[in-house]
Every structure is written in C-alpha cells, then in structure tokens.
TrEMBL record:
Residues 173-183 have a biased composition (Polar residues). It comes from Candidatus Dechloromonas phosphorivorans. Residues 161-183 are annotated as: Disordered. This is Uncharacterized protein.
Length: 282
C-alpha cells in the first residue's frame, strides 16, 4: 500500500512538473546539454536586446541560403538571407555564427535546430516589434512562444543524415514546418529536446534596454539648445486618424526630436489595432 501511494505521489509530481514546465520537451538528461541549450537561449535573447535597428528581433534559421557571393551556405552557422521580406524557412539550424556562439551540438554531436516566430524576424519592412507583438509558435498547445531551440538527438528509424530536411532530425509535428510543436519523453519514435523562449521573457529583457534608451532620448530632447523651454515633447494621442492603420509611434514628431531614437521609440510606441480600438503598448 505504501509503495502504491509513493508511486501515485511521484506520478502526480511528474504531471505537475510537465504542466508547470511547458517550455521543456522532457527532463533534460544531460547537464552538458542543459548548459548548451541555456547558452543558446541566452545568446538569442542578447541578440534581440542589442539589435540596433529593430529591438526584439531574431535572426532567420540557417537552412536554405546558398549564395557564394555572400559566402552564405546551408549549415555554415550563418542566418539565412531574406527572400523578399521573409525568412526562407522559419525552422532550421541554430545560426551559431550570427549569434556569436561556438558551434552548438547536443550529446550526440548533432547541431542544434531553431524555430522562429515570423513576426520577430529582423526585416525592416515588417511591422515594428513591441511588447504586444504576437508570437505565433506553440508547443503542446500552449502559445506565445517567440523561438525554440531543439536538440535533435541521434537519428531514428527513417532518418537519413546529413541532410537539410527537418524530418531527418526532428520528429512528428516538429518536422513539418508549421507553427505547432510538441514535446514528450524519449522513445523509439521521438527524441527531440526542446527549450523555448516565451514572448514574455523576450520582451521583458528588451523592454529594459528600450526604456533606458528612451529615457536618454527624452533627456537629449529636453537639453537640446534649440529647445529653449527645455521641455519634454508631448505624448502622442491615443488615436491618430492621420496615420495608416496599424502604425507604431511613441512621441509626437517635433523639429527637435532626436533622430537616433527611432528604433527605440518604434518598439516602445503605440500600436493601433484598428481605427476604433487604439491600444497603447510598451
């Protein structure tokens, strides 16, 4: 009876762990792998925080671009180049060169994979990123995932490596290129280990940088010689019908507005979701 009760307690504890830790595919089996995934996650967040022109953005995966002129090839650790305004693929190898990491592999020596929410791509023509930007990726049905790092493990039956086909490294829904991903215990048909970056944790880090720089921008505006009153600019109104639908803006433009503050103010700015439903973000 005692053994049965203990088993039930352990089972309940595991169920709680799984529900409370949707960000992991299963308990990490290797301290080294856990550290590798953590470094990759930290490097991606750092990349989003420090991006000069589009704070909060992340690089494309490395999978498709094959361009000798730009010395960019599949599997070289460099993020793919855009095809028009989109990443060629939103799942591929982790672009370890682009995020300033050494080559990142799992316990089996297989390079890490990476999935990105399209809304966070680093393309200047895309809608600006701010705290309310929707992250499209999901894992086990839970959403608001900005990016995922996946350790593919050893090849399973039916997988042929090396390859640039996600299905030769990832299993089940993780291999089909849509926004839905899954986790689970290792088995004969599944051995992906997934670490996630939620939208909330990504934006929390980016917001600190943006808030600090917006403060500097406002101070520069107030101290500018041409600003004889040394006043701060008026805030933008909640509804600006002269702007096109879905535009972001933080401050009403003035002749003394510091031009170098554009990307920070774009991130921190106002997100109009429709002409009758203004919403301030940031």
């Amino acid at each position: 009876m005692v053994m049965i009760l203990a088993a039930l307690i352990l089972a309940g504890g595991y169920a709680f762990y799984r529900s409370a830790n949707i960000g992991q595919s299963h308990t990490l089996q290797s301290t080294k792998l856990a550290a590798t995934l953590a470094r990759a996650k930290e490097a991606l967040i750092a990349r989003a925080v420090t991006d000069a022109n589009r704070p909060g953005s992340l690089p494309c995966p490395d999978l498709i671009t094959n361009n000798a002129g730009f010395s960019n090839f599949p599997g070289d650790g460099q993020a793919d180049m855009f095809t028009l305004t989109q990443c060629p693929s939103y799942v591929g190898w982790l672009p370890w060169v682009t995020i300033d990491l050494p080559e990142s592999t799992d316990d089996t020596g297989t390079r890490l994979w990476y999935a990105l929410s399209p809304s966070l791509r680093d393309d200047d023509s895309a809608y600006p990123i701010n705290s309310d930007t929707v992250a499209a990726l999901k894992i086990d049905g839970g959403g608001e995932i900005a990016a995922m790092i996946i350790a593919p493990g050893s090849a399973l039956a039916g997988q042929a490596r090396p390859s640039n086909n996600p299905a030769d490294y990832l299993e089940g829904d993780n291999s089909n290129g849509d926004n839905n991903y899954v986790s689970g215990p290792a088995s004969a048909t599944f051995n992906d280990v997934v670490a996630i970056i939620t939208r909330q944790e990504l934006m929390a880090a980016v917001e600190k940088r943006v808030a600090s720089e917006v403060k500097v921008c406002l101070e520069q505006h107030a101290l500018a010689a041409a600003n004889t009153l040394h006043s701060y600019p008026w805030p933008a109104p909640l509804l600006q019908p002269e702007l096109p639908w879905q535009k972001w803006q933080l401050l009403r433009a003035t002749s003394n507005y510091p031009a170098q503050c554009g990307s920070q103010c774009q991130f921190a700015g106002e997100h109009h979701t429709g002409s009758n439903s203004p919403k301030r973000s940031g």
